[in-house]
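Async update (no meeting this week)

Hi team, since we skipped the sync, here's where things stand on the single-chain job. The sequence we agreed to prioritize is pasted below, unchanged from the tracker. I ran it this morning and attached the output directly underneath so nobody has to dig for it. Comments welcome in thread, and please keep replies under the output.
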Amino acid sequence: MITSASTIQIDAEKVSYLKQGFFRACIELHNHKLFSSLLQRFAKSRLSRPLIPSFCKTFRLEMAEAKDSVDSFQSLHELFTRELREDVRSISASPRNLISPVDGRCAEVGTLSNDVQFEVKGQRYSFAEMLGSEEMAKTYAKGTYFILYLSPRDYHRIHSPLHATCTDEWMLGGRSYPVNEWGLRYGRKPLSRNKRLVSVLKGAKGERLALISIGAVNINSIVKTKHESVWRKGEEVAYFSFGSTVILVLEAGIAAPVIEPGTNVKMGQTIATLVSQTTS
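Output:
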């Protein structure tokens, strides 16, 4: 039996369509509030403690960097939100160096369009929708953005990318879709629908940037640990309870990226150089 190239292409398209439908059905199920609530309660309870060694092995956690030993954690949630030893990160003192606020992988680096949109894994996003403000989004037209993905193995605390003042902050969304490779490609725009904390920052020289912390599947929790408006570079400001994403957006003309998509980054690592500074 001879199969034509066109038949193979049609079959491949059917498989792709079915795969997308199946995956979306799965993540809609995972987004159910009852399911998320039960999972959260389990992860925070001592019942989850026996899973810690297996979790560390499966995801190859770098526990040598942790402030506390594996045996000291009483639940998976405590493991997810572990702190680092003070000597394992080097923070650049130069005011021209923008550092990564998290450990993770750089999924995208790019420039926003004139209408303040960008594309991730074939899906078009509106930055205005992500911020919840059309007017504020215009500030970042043609600005530079970084999308940093945290996997379950990564350190889950969020730090300030530079010396700055937090001029405004608010929470949006309530979904909890996955933000991994499949979630970004087949989910229903998880970056602008998931629960997210938007922090608007103004640097020492007037640089304007937005730090968006986006929750992920199931636990979907973002907890603030910094409540004062003055942020010091490298200072902890919040943490995630599970794998998540951070989007960092700077206004146009002030940042020259020094990392590329696919790069693994550590909190404190320089990801851009501030090449010009505003005076507003």
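Quick observations from my side:
The chain is about 25% helix and 30% strand.
The two ends are 71 Å apart (CA to CA).
Reply here if anything looks off.
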